[in-house]
Write a structure and sequence with these properties.
Blueprint (H helix, E strand, L loop, with lengths): L2 H10 L1 H13 L7 H5 L6 H12 L10 H12 L15 E6 L2 E7 L2 E8 L9 H10 L4 E9 L16 H10 E5 L8 H12 L3 H34 L2 H30 L9 E5 L2 E9 L2 E9 L4 E7 L9 H9 L7 E3 L4 E6 L3 H21 L1 H8 L3
Parallel strand pairs: 3-4, 4-5
Antiparallel strand pairs: 1-2, 2-3, 6-7, 7-8, 8-9, 9-11, 10-11
Helix pairs in contact: 2-9, 5-8, 8-9, 10-12, 11-13
């Protein structure tokens, strides 16, 4: 497999990988979430419609009155060519579920907003949006907005099945149609445009917790969908045999990177005995290590473990009778003023310095760090010998 073929394959997927990484970095679903804990229904459309209906309804038991509804109307008004003035709606606003099979309807006398929830990525039923539009129009209710809420960034209403009574109605629907993404990392998605402002104006801690956790669920679902979208695109790329063979070659070489970087790292420090004050730089099972820093009757080793996204530089005492104890390596790190650069790992019995970077970057960072570490050990060897003799 030539390097040129690998370059071409990487270049052809550069934009998709960039988008994937940006969205992955923005995803912030961590820890426990009550929506996920109670069951798996957070994947389903009805759960999201239920949550949205409760939040939007002024009479719901969240106790915030029309605060969330006003913020929602302000949000969709910014995305609409039609000005939505909630102050003109009056106070008798009803937010209903599944009336006429509409997911959510916000209604007050002769005005309405329809919310069609496609968070579960379901397809449209035949003539779906015009049907909902005519349901309300036949009751002399003006539809001021039709919100089409999705996770999929490319999903749009299916206009191929629309049956409209006249061209004027078609134009009216198109003017009132607002496509909103639950989360796409922009200021105009549902999270940034509505949920985050709701959190900011809420003082009740229980309401804040619900809003924050619902926000996290939307981010989680979007990430899962993004993963699928990326893999769908990636699989299509692999349908071309030369691309598949190139991808396999890349994977095989990526898998070999830790061993290669480890050997390269060992050779760097073995050259001209840069490993001093250790007795040597060696390899064991693909891991470079410095062996036998002998001082005051103690013997210390340092392993440098490379993985694709992390590098761990450890430091430990290896005398059989006190192997992997904390006291002596801690004393040395204090004496060379590097204790803050390491953390004690109870499980391994070693002090560890962790570099959280990809393996290409971490190799360079590890070299700089280890060179400083070795320089300080050499400079303070006599002081270390004196102090360890007292233990």
């Amino acid at each position: 497999m030539s390097i040129e073929a690998i370059k071409r394959f990487i270049e052809s997927n550069r934009e998709a990988v960039s988008t994937f990484n940006k969205k992955k970095a923005a995803e912030s679903f961590n820890g426990l979430n009550i929506f996920e804990m109670v069951s798996d229904i957070y994947h389903r459309e009805n759960m999201h419609s239920d949550v949205l209906q409760v939040l939007l309804a002024p009479s719901a038991n969240h106790g915030e009155n029309d605060k969330y509804l006003k913020l929602f109307m302000e949000f969709i008004s910014k995305k609409s060519s039609y000005k939505i003035e909630l102050t003109q709606w009056g106070t008798n606003i009803i937010v209903s579920r599944e009336e006429g099979r509409r997911d959510i309807t916000i209604l007050e006398n002769n005005k309405a907003v329809i919310i069609e929830n496609k968070i579960n990525d379901a397809g449209d039923t035949t003539n779906q949006i015009p049907t909902y539009y005519y349901q309300l129009k036949s009751r002399k209710i003006e539809v001021v907005a039709i919100v089409y809420l999705t996770l999929n960034q490319g999903k749009e209403p299916d206009r191929t099945t629309w049956e409209l009574e006249n061209e004027s109605d078609k134009l009216d629907i198109e003017n009132k149609l607002i496509c909103i993404r639950a989360f796409d990392g922009t200021s105009s998605d549902l999270i940034s445009g509505w949920l985050t402002p709701c959190i900011k104006v809420t003082t009740d801690s229980n309401n804040i917790a619900v809003l924050v956790q619902y926000k996290a669920i939307l981010q989680k679902l979007t990430k899962e969908l993004l993963d699928m979208d990326f893999m769908d695109s990636f699989a299509k790329q692999l349908e071309q045999e030369h691309n598949f063979n190139t991808a396999v070659a890349i994977k095989e070489n990526i898998d070999k990177l830790p061993d290669y970087i480890g050997l390269k790292f060992k050779n760097y420090f073995a050259y001209e005995e840069k490993y001093n004050p250790f007795k040597g730089a060696r390899m064991y099972n693909g891991i470079p290590y410095f062996e036998n820093f002998e001082v005051a009757g103690y013997c210390f080793n340092s392993d440098v473990i490379f993985s694709l996204d992390t590098c761990v530089v450890d430091f430990s005492v290896r005398n059989k009778e006190i192997c992997y104890t904390k006291e002596t390596p801690k004393k040395i790190l204090e004496l060379i003023d590097m204790l803050s650069e390491f953390r004690w790992n109870n499980k391994s019995g070693r002090y560890e310095h962790i570099i959280n970077e990809n393996i290409i970057k971490s190799e360079k960072m590890a070299i700089v760090f280890v060179e400083e570490f070795l320089n300080k050990l050499r400079a303070k060897k006599e002081v270390i010998k004196s102090e360890l003799s007292k233990i």
